Amino acid sequence: MKSYLLKWTGIVALxxxxxxxxxxxxxxxxAAVKVTKIPTLTQVKQKTPANFNxxxxxxxxxxxxxxxxxxxxxxxxxxxxxxxxxMSATFYVLMQNPKDAKxxxxxxxxTSRYRDIEKGKSKVSAILIPAAMSRxxxxxxxxxxxxxxxxxxxTSDVKSGDLTNRKEWWKDxxxxxxxxxxxxTGYLLDRSKTPFGLVxxxxxxxxxx
Length: 209
Known about the structure:
- The chain has a single domain, classed as Immunoglobulin-like (Sandwich), CATH 2.60.40.
- About 15% of the residues lie in helices and about 40% in strands.
- The chain has helices at about 1-25, 130-135, 175; strands at about 30-35, 45, 65-75, 85-95, 105-120, 120-130, 140-150, 150-160, 180-185, 190.
- The longest helix has 26 residues, at about 1-25.
- It is globular.
- About 30% of the residues are buried.
């Protein structure tokens, strides 16, 4: 009986070891993806690109929230192809409206997927539409998570006001699911779905459907 148990334990151990090795291989593509630049909260406001606003006076151009994130891809030298097969970026934005005492916070989230990312520097971007910028107050938090193989490989964020002392505020249910917060969908878009999509086109990764 003892030898049988030892044999069975060994089989189970090998099975779990194999599963662990498989999971690690799946998550580690041999590439290192790192956020190198994220805009400050004072840099995100941009007017509609002039080329898409013919006939509209500059004074009437609407304001968007533009969240450009720069990143760098370094691929393992052992790999024959200098590519990351697939990557995703999840953007989180929190706004605060000082005129709304009941539910002053608006939370926005967007995940965009990209394929065949070549080594070197590149950008991903999410855009908050003008209606949100006009209606829901001031942006007090921006965060981005980059994921490869379903695993978050790097994060970066900027924050102000009530978020100043909160670490990873986008994971804090008191912030994202609190009674004073409204989750809003359809306002935060991938850059390619806005007028900015054709501005500096080659500098950005293109979202896949």
